[in-house]
Amino acid sequence: MRKIETTLTTLLSDIGAFYEAKKWHFLSVNGIDLGEGKIELQWIFSQYGVKDEVVIYYALSDYETPVPSIVTLIPSAFMGEREIVDMFGLKVEGAVSGLYLDEDSLPHPLRGES
Amino acid sequence: MKKTIQIPLGSQHISLLEPIRFKFECENEKIIGVDADVGFVHRGVELACTRSFEFKQVGYVVARVCGLCAITHSLSYTLAVEKLLGYVANDRIKYLRMLMVELDRIHSHMLCLAHTAENAGFEALFMQIMGDRELIMDVQEAISGNRVQFDYISIGGVNRDLTPELVALIHKNLGLLSNKIDTLIGMFDNNWSLSLKYKGVGVLSLEDAYIYNALGPLARAAGLATDVRAETSDFPYEDIGYKMILESSGDIHARNFIRLREIVNSIEMCQNIVNNLPVGEIQEKAKGKPSGEAVVRVEAPRGELFYLVRGSGQNMLDRVRIKTPTFSAIPAMMEVFKGAEYADAPAILASFDPCMSCTAK
């Protein structure tokens, strides 16, 4: 597993330069609450046909800063982006809430203070 | 001006056994747009794994994510925690874990084939395949003590060993099933309703498989050579006769054949495991508390299952991330629906083998 740091500002250019659809399998968008209003966001890839090659791009952020969408680069990412909107209450460009949660559900359940 | 109408499929539908709802936008009989709603049974398992249960208990919690691939979930989590503890299982434990995962794959694939037969109007064949599937369910129950939700894998090993009686039962039932699968392959290859009818229907092209990150049987039916068993080194799959199964047409027929041929390969692997089971303990001590971050990928029956576990040396974990095969397959599934006839939607859906229990974990 390799972890590569990025920022929300450079995310699109970093992943755009890295991602090739026939080389990398896009696994997931992930969030990890770090406490005190901070969150680590992850974009995870594995390489086709290569053993144990997993690459994680990660960015440290807070809950207020809008997260850019990578759907223009990786169309299948919309599911993961909708999931972190529901689970962490993040604002992701173009992603709406309601994938998992209903209106009467616990809001953003994976945030630390929830 | 062409008129379009919205037609829902699910979440309660006679051809749809899972709580997922598709909203199709149709122009006459053709699907031109689709949206999916997957949250009907969301259970908050990820939250429970970090707030309600200690790390030693979580393996038994995640086994409840799915009744079909419970072993795969508990195995993925256990491998991730073992990486954080710096523990590597001995070969006997690895072989026993592989045995149970491959048995999971066989009965899960058979369930999908049964539903496919049902959607083709073969009620009797549906019952026959489900009956034959019991040969594997009986073996899993005899090994683990449970018929579903198997609590077989634990941190540092497995909970039960094979006895000579169990080995005899495994050989007997796998032998019986092998003959039945040969018959099934003939039916799915020659019967019009199961073969020609499904050729060219619900096609996922290789190009779209890459673009939409298809995985598991869905990807391999389109010719995309990806299988976690070949892309990770956690288990010695090459030693027990693993072969990557590929088709190229990407249609319902190809997906059926991927599953049939994978069942044959899984039967061979299970027989090889039992015949070459290494000597060793089935339970070892994995000391300490998980600290750091680990990722694990395991090939579940429907494709790649991904776990990310982060701990900070406490009994409670900081994060358990579960990414399930069907969740990842939905973008590719939605693409396949576009352009298909609405009447084919139930058969296409069955061929994807969606698991909403996993998806809404």
Written description of the protein model:
The complex is a heterodimer of chains A (114) and B (361). Chain A is α+β, with helices and mostly antiparallel strands and 114 residues long. Chain A is 17% helix and 31% strand. In chain A, strands 1-4-3-2 form a four-stranded mixed β-sheet. Chain A is globular and about 45 Å long. The mean pLDDT of chain A is 94. In chain B, the strands form three sheets. Chain B has a three-stranded antiparallel β-sheet, with helices on one face. In chain B, strands 6-7-8 form a three-stranded antiparallel β-sheet. In chain B, strands 4-5 form a two-stranded antiparallel sheet. By secondary structure, chain B is α+β, with helices and mostly antiparallel strands. Chain B has 13 helices and eight strands. The model of chain B has no long low-confidence stretch (mean pLDDT 93). In chain B, 48% of the residues lie in helices and 14% in strands. The chains are: A alpha+beta (114), B alpha+beta (361). At the A-B interface, β2, β3 and α2 of A face β6, β7, β8 and α11 of B.
What class, by secondary structure content of chain B?
alpha+beta
User: Spans of chain B with pLDDT under 50 lasting ≥5 residues?
Assistant: none
Helical residues, percent of chain A: 10-25%
Main sheet record of chain A: 4 strands, mixed
Strand content of chain B: 5-15%
Q: How many H/I helical runs of chain A?
A: 2
**Please, what is the average pLDDT of chain B?**
93
Strand order of the largest sheet of chain A: 1-4-3-2
Query: How is the quaternary structure best described?
Result: heterodimer
N-C termini distance of chain B: 43 Å
Output the helix-strand order of chain A.
EHEEEH
Mean pLDDT of chain A: 94
User: Could you give the order of strands across the largest sheet of chain B?
Assistant: 1-2-3
What's the main sheet of chain B like? Answer: 3 strands, antiparallel
Rounded Rg of chain A: 14 Å
Query: How would you spell out the order of helices and strands of chain B?
Result: EEEHHHHHEEHHHHHEEEHHH
Structural class of chain A: alpha+beta
Largest interface: A-B, 38 and 37 residues
Shape annotation of chain A: globular
The count of strands of chain A amounts to 4
